[in-house]
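User: Continuing from earlier, I have the next pair ready.

Assistant: Great, send them over.

User: Here they are, in order.

Assistant: Folding the first of the pair now:
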Amino acid sequence: MIKSLKSVALLGLILVISISCDNDFTNIESNIQGIKNFEATSKLFPFTAKTQNFTPFSGGLNDEKGVQTNNLNGKVFGVYKNPTNGFGATVASVISQVAPLTYNPDFGNINRTIESVWLNIPYYSTLESTDADGDNTYTLDSIYGDTDQEFKLYIYRSNYVLRDLDPSSDFETTQSYFSNQGDLFESVSTAADLIYTDENFKISASEHTVSEIIDGEEVIERITPGIRLNLLDAGPNSSNNNVSFWESIFFDNQDSEILSTQSNFKDFFRGLIIKVVPVDETNPNGSLTYLNFDSGSIVFDYTNLEEENAEAAGETYDTTEYTLEFNGNIVNTFNQINAVDHDGDEDNLYLQGTDGSMAVIDLFSGDIQNEDGDLVPSLDYFVSKNGKWLINEANLVFYVNKDLVEGDEPDRVTLYDLKNNAPIIDYFLDGTTNTAQPEFSKILFSETLERDSEDNGVKYKIRLTSHITNILQNDSTNVKLGLFLVNNINVTSGSTIQGVNNDDDDSTLDMIPSTSILSPKGTILHGYSDNVDTPLRAEFEIFYTEPEN
């Protein structure tokens, strides 16, 4: 409820600012038309920028705080070793609740036998082509790292209760779960809860096929790329099976309350832990992608006497499948290995996704030379131009530190108002929204990373014209801003920081864009400090028109 009220208040603020900015544009346009003599120019203004970690640095050990990950619109899975020193490697695992699609099943009572228990969680992929034999070729929509590298995959039955509501708020708000809670979730699991082990797992874009003989002909079912495992087996290299385990879950609970409602089932079977472990934990490597739990399922396939009799009589039997879907709480957990702490660095701005880091920006911080050659506070100087300057454009430009970055730079960044935990107003006024292709969305507000002829990153450019106009004309507060990486710039939902109370103080980082968590990459930008050479130094430039009469 608290979050809902805050969202409504934020929406109201955005609408008020939007109307204000629309008026500003109208006034500027009419003023320009009435001016016969004017001169357009620009001025560079000082500011400060520094690296800030999302949570206190832990070096991968005893991580005391995390970022909220049960509200993400996707889930990261696998191992990603950033090619740039200092960012280390991210190991991403998942814990998820599951529940049946239907309740009070009748599995039969005679000759019941489990045939398979298929776990299927697709990756996000695109069909590229289909050959004459019907074989499909896919590409994964997002894949990071080295797909030739293997990692270990373990599937556990979860014994941890994932609550929907937070008891500390009298069960009035949803429960938050965080990226550093992997050990907590696993602490109540034992070796007996380990269902499946694959010591040589790879993320692949290949489709899965299932062949079956029907009426004497081979019928091939084709399934999109993803995690597809028969959990009736204990693993690809194991001679053990999980028959008794799944019988105890389903057959033994026929006609019981456990299979009568979703809440009863979730209290009994609390979900799955999909745990990722690098082959080499001191020098992790592998690949990472996203899991589509909305299309995921566990299909429990069995036979019974009724099906056997129907088949013997050549009759069709309705079904002997029982399907579970992934719903409720799905939480990403991260293990950061070999990362280096860059918190507070001003010479270089370290931007990283997952539970990484951002840049905090304080505009108009410092002195500027006025028309008389005197140094004056830059914000005072700027505000004194109200009624004298017409703002045409304002930009922040950040240059990639090519001496430190080893490639694989992210394409997009975004700029947030850290007081209201929302993108600045220029984001909302950018009409280039593209929901089908987020990489081409909001490109006036945040340009795609400019690259050189060798595909190396050069610079990011953010337009904040309306934000600056509001400071000049509407006496808006010059709040601190946050520069973040984004996975999908269309997503504006926020994720809380563990142990930090939400407030309106822009000096306290209590929330970050959830889309930044889903960006595993990292980049290093030149800052604005005096130690940075001018050609590569970050820039805050305002273009304005000043009437001559």
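And the other member of the pair:
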Amino acid sequence: MLTFKQSFFMVLILFSSIFIIPVLMGWGKIMENIWGILFQGISGKILSGILGISLIWTILSFFTPLNIKVEAPSVLLGLFFFFKNKLYQEFHHFSKKDCLVLSVSSVTAIFAGSFYPYILDHFGYYVPTLKWLTEYGLIKGISNVDLTLGQMSVWHIFQAGFSNFSDPFLRINTLLLIIYSIYSIERKNWVHLCFLPILLLFSQSPSPDLPVIIFSLIILNEITAGNKNTTLLFAFSVFVFTIKPTMLWLPVFVFLNFVLICKSTFKQFLFGGSILFLFFIKNIWTFGYPVFPIATGDVGVPWKPDPEILKISSQFAIMKTYDMQYTFEEIQKFSTVDYIRNWFSLDGIKSKINILFVLSLVIFSVFAWIKKRKLITLLCISLLIKSILVLAFSAQYRFFTDVFFVIFFVLFYEYFDRKKSIITFSALSLLCISILSFPELIQRSIPSFRVGSFMTGFEKEQIYKPATYEYQQFDTYKVGNFKFNVSHHYPYSFDTPLPAITPAYLSDDVKAGIFPQLLDKKDIKKGFISKKMTSAEKEEAQKVINNIKNTDK
């Protein structure tokens, strides 16, 4: 069983936000001096700062870990420009009513962020990624240790850079919700407040799903409002794509809008193109191919994952499409009709989400056809392109969640004024906080919603301490030249000392007859490569597997 540790005062989440926001505004001012203004206001500077510091840290992470030696000077530089340019004066522009709305939304976000993390990727993907980034930086061929580590999302690079002392409890998403509130109030586009309560469910973990939803809605709002800053809007849309490639629709939409409607020139897309190039280089460095987890665009690097591991991953993605309710062999026997019918008739809530997704696309397509506005038509085409690719690759609902937000925004952004949005925000916030505080409500009403079963509910200690987990039980093994740690009787390695391998991925390696090895046995920073095991290494690996199985018993 996991032991609980609540080691940081909840009030530090507030202090962390107060501390990091000026840093990001300072970096935003630096970006504005170089590339111009994304859009006016506090939130415009913050978003420019996020873009600038994320790109710089991505480049630095090739050469150095994102530890305190990187964070400290970055923070000091941001604060220097914040005070030098007297950016604090911009907060005086808020009215008393605006300050009240911002205070309520911020306190709500901070309270939601104080709950225990419950998204499984927090333990199996987010935290291990952050540990590698802060201790080693971007490691060549890290996907050979654990395929999921090959993603190394730019959002996790951003979080890692602030995780040493600015945000050691990994609540950067809580901060982003506060920033989103600032944007909604500044732009007087109140419909965004309606989204905030639902997004509270992402505030406990550094999930990349939250920033891509928020950033895409902001960019969509800016384009709808007539912002014609081609260079920065396209660059930021590509930045969103680098956080989560399933957001392909956003740069496609922005590109089509500026080419077909605004008649932008080629050089205005160069900044965004350079971000895309950096993204490809990062993925080739960590994964071996330009876009994770697709094994296309082979440039012949020797540290790319073994084909058998990629095959296993692909099969798993297909099974996840059907919520693991069918084996891969059963899915292979599906006819075209079976593929569609079984996806719509899965047991539990997943089938309802799938039906709603397709229905939403149909409604939006009809809406676009009726309106006959170029902007809406281009958005519809972009969403359909993304949806077709997702359906073809792995039609999991978490890959198309953003589509619901976008469609709702376009259909209702003119309907929700300040009063309606605040009422909706209040009601939905109460509902979402109730779900987090009393998860048995959702566990009883929607038992098939598995994520709900990992919610632990409200504990009075979290009023002054944000909730965190601690496990720190592991065993150490060695196969070939690679000495590694495996979590003891637990499937994830969120706080296992590095280098660490999850039991499931270890088992896949052994089945494939390969194992990760150090390119330089004296230096982990030189990276990893997959090698076929010798007979002696197979014996070593099998002993590890047997020991893990015996421990589990």
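Worth noting for the second one:
Confidence is low (pLDDT under 50) at residues 1-9. Strands lie at 3-5, 468-470, 474-479, 482-487, 514-518, 528-532.
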